[in-house]
């Protein structure tokens, strides 16, 4: 029994102790110096360091996938060689250029006067709107356009203003990670590149946004949360349940982050951002052949299980568009360092040609194409699926995408497809009631894509099917709804200032030089300006199928950031943001992007079963647990040949094939330059090698030359070698080998460090010292299973290997696309495109590609 007086004596120290324990342990934040949290105001720091830089992930990635280094000169020239214009043509062009610029400055002034530092200005009422977090979306999104148009004073004023942006303050409880990425991260990166890196604050803000968005990837499988409760993430403590990716995610929102995150890694030299999006695309690669329409990905996917086989709706329009658009542009941005994006694109394009692209029935029998929709119940054979002839303004990006891919991947026949797709959207504008294509419409599709003559009766039948409850005649329905001939229904009559059509027209014009497209663009521009201009800016239309359409009180940021930018570039000199030049005026020859320096010391490659080393232009097969390749050994070698060999091997491995090998059961093999037998076997080698192994499989360099030739033809000459049983046994190790090859190809950077391939077998490495005198291949015995070196690190550790945790596509599905072995390198400027990013350019590459 405690007497009352003693209870009172003990009560005070007990309460004090409880308070101390609570503040030290129970309320401990996940951030080292988090000190306040309130709704709408995330967290602030007194030391000025980015709050999100101190985010402590529950699922850390210790060995990020490194950004590949581009190989120069591998993409052909993209842009058409334009002839010199005469004085009269120049006068017309300059007048049009000033007209576009004048409309931009009109809308920009409306934003400055009515909604400065807000996301958008309402072009009728003048209200300030903040649908994207309140971080000045229009300002950030429009920076590259300001620079391209020569509005440098406005540009510098905007750059000064962004220093005030506080990404610890958000007007929303939940942000769209995709929208935040393309507007803010892409906006900062594009402006930083287009202005030749003269404004460091732009990169600083890009890194700040990248650090914030990277926290959305802190999930068990590292798939991002696309609709992210940002305040909850910031407020998490060690006791808070972990974040998890969604089970129903729009495919565009998870698959369209690659360009911005990759460019951020290139500029910041921080591989984490590239690693984050590369993991996503590895999952997309693994699932591409397993969906209900192999080659395409459904509109909705399960990011939590990473299994895309259940969904049935497919389109390249809204909710999916930018996923496909990014594939050739990411290939260009990486400089052709990986065949992955080429493979993904080619297989997707083949499926589009079979199931998505359709020819509409038109009165003039126009040879045009539109992208449509298709669904699969999983029971109907894929070859019998019917395309729904539903055309979206969003899908007008496809013409530019295919035109770009035709040049980047050396597929000239695809340029005809691109022309038909662009002509389809031009047809949509020219036949629209106001001369503007609506948001969504249904067309009368051709039953035979090659023979498609106009039939008035069939068109009427399609209209009757679209409006079964219409009381009047079909002619009355057509008149009442202002349906153009060939259009059976207008599902959504809005026009919201979208850029996709003019973007594709611009891209095709710069590639082909077709002067007809310039006149088309001028007509489109005048029609749009006529119907959308307000006293404050430009407004979207609620219904472009009626005379005097009512206006929307909204001007989205892409009007200034993209639509007017492409109209301006249509009438600018061809070397302004040339597809072959740095991404801005040819009068400024500073190259945007300088690839990271090649590593001077070692490449670290890890695989438990086998190793491939490329020295002296020969692929040497090694079976040590890991391999250190002395960088100096490669200096006398032709690196393009090394990488070519790596590509060829990687492609065969992706098909489930292996290099023929000889098995040796000797305990020890020592090779030196003084050994005559070894010298005979390795005639081309410039180094000495000491290798010790027990019961190991090995192949000499001279044998490897024959092995590689056999390796590249074996599948056709001896198909029985790859039986189904053999493939099943090999498949489990293929992703690791493939990942290792990518690492060998791309890991030659970041001086003095080793790049660790993340798909690696477990256990602790046994370190070896490398000396200048040795310059030999070394063995590192084993690799740790877990990330993190210290005991205090969170213990939720991933073992990244998406291709073994997900079913591998069957060979007949994988073979959907053309398996090109072209090693064309991607040049890019990060400047063109609706997905923000401007001006990225690889220094030595000859061709450039616009990326959004």
Automatic annotation (TrEMBL):
One of its GO terms (cellular component) is endoplasmic reticulum. Its EC number is 3.2.1.-. It holds the Pfam family Glyco_hydro_47. InterPro entries: 6hp_glycosidase-like_sf, Glyco_hydro_47, Glycosyl_Hydrolase_47, Seven-hairpin_glycosidases. Residues 707-717 have a biased composition (Basic and acidic residues). The chain crosses the membrane at residues 6-26. Residues 662-679, 686-702, 765-778 have a biased composition (Low complexity). Residues 655-737, 758-778 are annotated as: Disordered. Pathway: Protein modification; protein glycosylation. Disulfide bonds join 396-425. It is an enzyme of class 3 (hydrolase). Keywords: Disulfide bond, Glycosidase, Hydrolase, Membrane, Transmembrane, Transmembrane helix. The lineage of its organism: Eukaryota, Fungi, Dikarya, Ascomycota, Pezizomycotina. This is alpha-1,2-Mannosidase. GO terms for molecular function: calcium ion binding; mannosyl-oligosaccharide 1,2-alpha-mannosidase activity. The active site is at residues 179, 321, 439, 500. One of its GO terms (biological process) is ERAD pathway. Belongs to the glycosyl hydrolase 47 family. It comes from Talaromyces islandicus. Its cofactor is Ca(2+).
């Amino acid at each position: 029994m405690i007497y009352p007086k003693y209870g009172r004596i003990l009560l005070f120290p007990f309460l004090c102790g409880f308070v101390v324990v609570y503040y030290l342990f129970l309320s401990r934040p996940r951030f080292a110096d988090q000190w306040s949290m309130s709704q709408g105001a995330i967290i602030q720091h007194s030391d000025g360091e980015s709050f999100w830089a101190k985010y402590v992930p529950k699922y850390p990635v210790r060995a990020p996938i490194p950004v590949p280094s581009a190989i120069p000169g591998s993409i052909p020239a993209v842009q058409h060689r334009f002839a010199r214009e005469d004085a009269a043509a120049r006068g017309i062009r300059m007048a049009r250029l000033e007209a576009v610029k004048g409309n931009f400055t009109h809308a920009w002034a409306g934003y400055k006067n009515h909604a400065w530092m807000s996301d958008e200005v309402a072009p009728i009422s003048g209200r300030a709107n903040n649908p994207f977090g309140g971080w000045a979306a229009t300002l950030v999104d429009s920076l590259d356009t300001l620079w391209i148009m020569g509005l440098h004073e406005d540009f510098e004023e905007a750059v000064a203003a962004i220093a005030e942006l506080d990404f610890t303050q958000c007007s929303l409880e939940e942000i769209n990670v995709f929208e935040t990425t393309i507007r803010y991260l892409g906006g900062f990166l594009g402006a930083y590149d287009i202005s030749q890196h003269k404004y460091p604050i732009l990169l600083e803000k890009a890194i700040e946004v990248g650090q914030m968005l990277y926290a959305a990837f802190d999930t068990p499988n590292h798939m991002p949360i696309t609709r992210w409760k940002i305040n909850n993430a910031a407020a998490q403590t060690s006791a808070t349940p972990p974040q998890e990716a969604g089970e129903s995610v729009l495919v565009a929102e998870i698959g369209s982050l690659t360009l911005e995150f990759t460019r951020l890694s290139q500029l910041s030299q921080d591989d984490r951002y590239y690693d984050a999006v590369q993991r996503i695309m590895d999952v997309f690669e693994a699932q591409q052949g397993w969906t209900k329409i192999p080659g395409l990905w459904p509109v909705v996917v399960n990011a939590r299980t990473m299994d895309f086989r259940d969904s049935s709706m497919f389109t390249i329009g809204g909710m999916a568009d930018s996923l496909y658009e990014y594939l050739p542009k990411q290939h260009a941005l990486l400089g052709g360092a990986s065949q992955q994006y080429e493979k993904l694109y080619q297989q997707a394009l083949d499926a589009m040609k079979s199931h998505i692209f359709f020819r509409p029935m038109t009165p003039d029998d126009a040879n045009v194409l539109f992208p449509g929709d298709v669904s699969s119940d999983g029971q109907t054979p894929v070859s019998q699926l019917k395309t729904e002839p539903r055309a979206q303004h969003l899908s007008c990006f496809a013409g530019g995408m295919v035109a770009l891919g035709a040049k980047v991947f050396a597929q000239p026949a695809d340029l005809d497809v691109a022309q038909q797709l662009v002509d389809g959207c031009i047809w949509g504008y020219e036949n629209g009631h106001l001369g503007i294509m609506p948001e969504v419409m249904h067309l009368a599709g051709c039953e035979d894509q090659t023979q498609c003559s106009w039939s008035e009766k069939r068109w009427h039948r399609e209209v009757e099917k679209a409006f079964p409850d219409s009381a009047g005649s079909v002619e009355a329905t057509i008149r009442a709804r202002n349906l153009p001939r060939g259009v059976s229904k207008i599902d959504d009559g809005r026009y919201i200032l979208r850029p996709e059509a003019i973007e594709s027209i611009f891209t095709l014009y710069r590639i082909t030089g077709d002067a007809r497209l310039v006149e088309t663009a001028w007509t489109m521009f005048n029609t749009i300006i006529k119907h959308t201009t307000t006293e404050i800016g430009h407004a979207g239309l609620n219904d472009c199928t009626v005379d005097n359409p009512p206006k929307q009180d909204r001007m989205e940021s892409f009007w200034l950031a993209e639509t007017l930018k492409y109209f301006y570039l249509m009438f600018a000199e061809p070397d302004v943001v040339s597809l072959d030049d740095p991404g801005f005026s040819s009068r400024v020859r500073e190259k945007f992007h300088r690839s990271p320096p090649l590593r001077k010391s070692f490449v670290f490659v890890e695989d438990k079963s086998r190793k491939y080393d490329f020295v002296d232009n020969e692929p040497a097969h090694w079976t040590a647990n890991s391999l250190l390749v002395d960088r100096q050994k490669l200096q006398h070698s032709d690196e393009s040949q090394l990488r070519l060999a790596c590509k060829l091997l990687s492609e065969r491995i992706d098909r489930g094939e292996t290099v023929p090998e000889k098995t040796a059961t000797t305990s020890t093999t020592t090779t030196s330059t003084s050994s005559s037998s070894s010298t005979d076997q390795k005639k081309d080698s410039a180094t000495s090698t000491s290798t010790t192994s027990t019961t190991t499989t090995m192949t000499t360099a001279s044998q490897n030359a024959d092995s590689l030739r056999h390796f590249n033809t074996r599948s056709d000459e001896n198909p029985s070698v790859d039986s189904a049983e053999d493939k099943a046994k090999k498949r489990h190790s293929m992703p690791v080998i493939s990942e290792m090859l990518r690492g060998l190809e791309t890991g030659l950077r970041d001086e003095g460090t080793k790049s660790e391939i993340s798909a690696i077998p477990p256990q602790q490495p046994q370190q070896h010292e490398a000396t200048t005198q040795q310059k030999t291949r070394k063995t590192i015995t084993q690799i740790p299973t877990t990330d993190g070196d210290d005991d205090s690190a969170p213990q939720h550790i991933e073992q990244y290997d998406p291709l073994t945790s997900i079913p591998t596509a069957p060979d007949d599905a994988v073979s959907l696309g053309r398996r090109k072995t072209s090693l064309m390198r991607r040049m890019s400027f990060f400047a063109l495109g609706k997905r923000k990013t401007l001006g990225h350019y690889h220094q030595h590459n000859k061709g450039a590609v616009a990326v959004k």
